Amino acid sequence: MSIFEYNGSALVAMVGKNCFAIASDRRLGVQLQTIATDFQRISKIHDRLFLGLSGLATDAQTLYQRLVFRHKLYQLREERDMKPETFANLVSAILYEKRFGPYFCQPVIAGLGDEDKPFICTMDSIGAKELAKDFVVAGTASESLYGACESMFKQDMEPEDLFETVSQALLSSVDRDCLSGWGGHVYVVTPTEVKERILKGRMD
Amino acid sequence: MSRRYDSRTTIFSPEGRLYQVEYAMEAIGNAGSAIGLLSKDGVVLVGEKKVTSKLLQTSTSTEKMYKIDDHVACAVAGIMSDANILINTARVQAQRYTFAYQEPMPVEQLVQSLCDTKQGYTQFGGLRPFGVSFLFAGWDKNYGFQLYMSDPSGNYSGWKAAAIGANNQAAQSMLKQDYKDDITREEAVQLALKVLSKTMDSTSLTSEKLELAEVFLTPSGSVKYQVCSPESLSKLLLKFGVTQPATEAS
Q: Source organism's superkingdom (chain B) (predicted)?
């Protein structure tokens, strides 16, 4: 049993035309038992930056709280929000600090940078960044997600199209993974608004 | 008045005074003043900007008012560099509390924690005290809106209206006369501007010499700290009729 598979998770972020989408499943389990079906895996750092944390739920919660701490201080001192690229570097540094006793999480970061350019990235549990121009995935369902995204992704999708694509990719991938599922949570972010939607999938 | 005992900050004088702490308060008495007022629906902070020169690079940052956390802000009087250190300390303390308890730090606890830091510099280390006084304005769910004043000794207390910096005694007595327990935020702004205009040394009052900030609850129920823009401040000064040469303090 891998510690990364203890709670179960599925995360995906995709780039569209001047927008991005970040989606997660909603199951929280303790190995084979399902504990919650409304678990929030994606958190807002600021209006244009979202963070999804897959892996061990307790580490995800603590890591998120530490990042909020750092971001709040950054906001107070710099009098502005952190750029997604900067935030990704911060997450990477915090993860590497625990190189020999890591947080068992795999983060997915998605945000709108300068000139509303979408930015997505993921990293492993010790902070190795993986920047992508199209999509990034994480969690127990990641292998299925890679396949689904690769086949369904198209460049420069509009927000509505992007929502459909991300939702289909997520739902079809979690159906093949017993540890993730119980619906989906999708955020589609454009420069003007954030649309949050709940998906109903196979509730198992 | 034995001057032999001044050089060590952590030593009492024979009269039972801590001279370094008193000298720190002297330094603040020469700095730009700040006034805080507690109202039914918010806390108002007004500050006098002492550093005004045409050569100064204009920036959006404030000189007297600082946000400590989403629900607490402070006005400063004294040595700015000392203030920056303490403000940073306060910010980190507030975030550490939120990290541990996942809720905003109660205002009095934040003030107490910062004052404990200040007190340390009057009792050990052989370092001089911080030459700053603060007016803390904030809101928490236990006690609602609060205003606290703290000084270099690490002493603090809650106030309905308080003044720090230059001419603070004159400002304080004016506040004692005119303050009413049930003033609204708008009336508090008016009173603060009036008192400051009367106690400021400068000959004319413009929005460039002042800073105004308010801590209040938005309709959705969250706490907001808002600094007044120079344009709105000029309008307010005109509205309340204080854009005139300052008269002698009453």
A: Eukaryota
Q: Is pLDDT above 90 for B205?
A: no
**Interchain CB distance below 8 Å, A65 and B99:** yes
Residues B91, A73: C-beta atoms closer than 8 Å: yes
Per the CB < 8 Å rule, is A66 touching B60? no
Q: Is the dihedral of CA A168, A169, A175, A180 positive or negative?
A: negative
* Of the candidates A95, A151, A159, A156, the residue with the CA atom closest to the CA atom of residue A123: A95
CA dihedral A112, A63, B108, B210 (to 10 degrees): -20
Task: Give the pLDDT confidence of A17-65 residue by residue, as tens digits.
Answer: 999 999 999 999 999 999 999 999 999 999 999 999 999 999 999 999 9
**A-chain residues within 8 Å CB-CB of B96?**
69
- List C-alpha distances in Å: A105 to A91, A121, B36, B38, B51: 11, 14, 46, 46, 49
DSSP β-bridge partners for residue B158: B148
- Chain A residues closer than 8 Å to B103 by CB: none
Locate the chain A residue with the closest alpha carbon to B103: A65
ipTM of this complex > 0.85? yes
* Cβ-contact A177, A10 below 8 angstroms: yes
> Rounded CA gap, B143 and A157, in Å?
50
Q: What is the pLDDT of residue B201?
A: 78
Three-class HEC string of chain B = CCHHHCCCCCCCCCCCCCHHHHHHHHHHHCCCCEEEEEECCEEEEEEECCCCCCCCCCCCCCCCEEEEECCEEEEEEECHHHHHHHHHHHHHHHHHHHHHHCCCCCHHHHHHHHHHHHHHHHHCCCCCCCCEEEEEEEEECCCEEEEEEECCCCCEEECCEEEECCCHHHHHHHHHHHCCCCCCHHHHHHHHHHHHHHHCCCCCCCHHHEEEEEEEECCCCCEEEEECCHHHHHHHHHHCCCCCCCCCCC
Task: List CB contacts (< 8 A) between A73 and chain B.
Answer: 91-92, 95
Q: Which of B61, B95, B102 sits opposite A73 (nearest CB)?
A: B95
Chain B CB contacts of A76 under 8 Å are 67-69, 91
* Alpha-carbon gap, residue B71 to B86, rounded angstroms: 17
